[in-house]
């Protein structure tokens, strides 16, 4: 099986990155894996080989408006070179896999139709969520593109049952083509990780540490986390909020923290390579996103034995069942989220029970073995070729 993947993740060009390692692992499922990445020419990227049978190609577009055109051009060339040798009959198995049903999906659709090969679409975000549509004009355009792309797909991989449910409600004719395969989280590795830092020793001024791990972008609604923490701070002024991550909202969020009178109690820690140590030594993880496809942060926190308080997004309702749903709040509900944090602080027994119950659910909803995950991933590709 040969696979042509279309992606937007430029970290694939960073050889020691997690995503580059993951792509190399996907290569073990194929004869050849070619990955086209949307990228502007100004970035100066060039074709690289990250495994014996895995190659990565930047589109090197002058403008993002040309990403699709350039990806189609490169993809057609790769497929021709892969499938044909001096006029010989084509190799039987070839697949196009696109990262999303939007720009990469449209490029994949055009390649698939031109070369008459199967198409797989992956969905990592809840694009049918009204908040996704309200986020930007671009998102509304993307939601307009998606139905056309999805209807043409041979297979669709989604990362959570929530996305599958909403997708089939909107497009019943996709039934039979949609499979759930969550993002792989190495639960065993997180559980066995020995913390290199202890947040309570790093920040001894705090008697409770609330942790946010997130890209600092508007859809993650980290400004809500600041409003929630302000409520906690009013009752417990020795509490601290640590924000791990970076993004375009960072400057605005720092200004907000000062405006809310919590500037001295909020630490913006930036990107952290050893985020597992943060999970393991925090008191509670807070997730405030407007929408998520999966919400991997929740799984990572649960694996680290850290209780979570979250908006109702992604995997939240699957992970937090029955009584633990008191820690799953409607999107935007600062009062509910603040109550969850305070209740975990005030009851050690509640915290212990919450962790134990989440751990039990974690055993059922995650694939613990990376080899098993890769096999499941490969089966989805194979199913598209049948």
UniProtKB/TrEMBL annotation:
Stored CDD domains: GT4_GT28_WabH-like
SUPFAM superfamilies: UDP-Glycosyltransferase/glycogen phosphorylase
Entries under Gene3D superfamilies matching the protein: Glycogen Phosphorylase B
Domain of life: Bacteria
InterPro entries tied to this protein: Glyco_trans_1 (IPR001296), Glyco_trans_4-like_N (IPR028098)
Domain (Glycosyltransferase subfamily 4-like N-terminal): residue spans on this chain: 95-189
MF GO annotations: glycosyltransferase activity
Pfam families per record: Glyco_transf_4, Glycos_transf_1
Keywords linked to the UniProt accession: Glycosyltransferase, Transferase
Domain Glycosyl transferase family: 207-352
PANTHER family listed in its UniProt record: D-INOSITOL 3-PHOSPHATE GLYCOSYLTRANSFERASE, GLYCOSYLTRANSFERASE
Protein name: Glycosyl transferase family 1 domain-containing protein
Record organism: Candidatus Yonathbacteria bacterium RIFCSPHIGHO2_01_FULL_51_10
């Amino acid at each position: 099986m040969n696979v042509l993947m279309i992606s937007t993740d430029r970290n694939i060009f960073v050889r020691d990155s997690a995503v580059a390692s993951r792509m190399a692992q996907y290569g073990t499922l194929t004869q050849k894996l070619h990955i086209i990445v949307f990228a502007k020419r100004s970035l100066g990227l060039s074709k690289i080989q990250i495994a014996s049978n895995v190659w990565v190609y930047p589109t090197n577009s002058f403008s993002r408006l040309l990403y699709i055109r350039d990806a189609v051009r490169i993809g057609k060339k790769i497929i021709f070179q892969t499938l044909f040798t001096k006029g010989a009959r084509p190799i039987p198995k070839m697949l196009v896999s696109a990262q999303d049903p939007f720009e990469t999906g449209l490029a994949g659709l055009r390649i698939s139709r031109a070369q008459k090969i199967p198409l797989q679409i992956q969905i990592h975000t809840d694009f049918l969520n009204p908040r996704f549509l309200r986020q930007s004009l671009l998102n509304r355009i993307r939601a307009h593109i998606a139905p056309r792309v999805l209807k043409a797909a041979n297979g669709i991989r989604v990362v959570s049952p929530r996305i599958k449910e909403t997708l089939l409600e909107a497009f019943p004719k996709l039934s039979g083509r949609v499979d759930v395969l969550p993002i792989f989280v190495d639960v065993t590795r997180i559980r066995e990780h020995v913390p290199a830092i202890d947040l309570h020793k790093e920040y001894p001024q705090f008697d409770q540490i609330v942790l946010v791990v997130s890209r600092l972008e508007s859809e993650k609604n980290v400004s809500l986390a600041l409003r929630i923490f302000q409520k906690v701070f009013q009752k417990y002024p020795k509490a601290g909020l640590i924000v791990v991550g970076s993004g375009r909202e960072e400057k605005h969020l720092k200004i907000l923290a000062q405006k809310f009178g919590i500037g001295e109690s909020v630490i913006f820690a930036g990107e952290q390579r050893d985020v597992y140590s943060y999970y393991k030594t925090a008191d509670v993880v807070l997730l405030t996103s407007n929408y998520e496809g999966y919400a991997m942060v929740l799984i990572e926190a649960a694996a680290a034995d850290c209780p979570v308080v979250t908006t109702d997004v992604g995997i939240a309702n699957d992970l937090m069942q029955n009584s633990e749903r008191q820690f799953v709040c409607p999107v935007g509900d600062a009062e509910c989220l603040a109550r969850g944090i305070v209740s975990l602080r005030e009851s050690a027994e509640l915290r212990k029970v919450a962790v134990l119950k989440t751990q039990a659910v974690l055993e059922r909803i995650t694939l613990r073995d990376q080899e098993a995950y890769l096999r499941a991933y490969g089966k989805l590709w194979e199913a598209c070729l049948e």
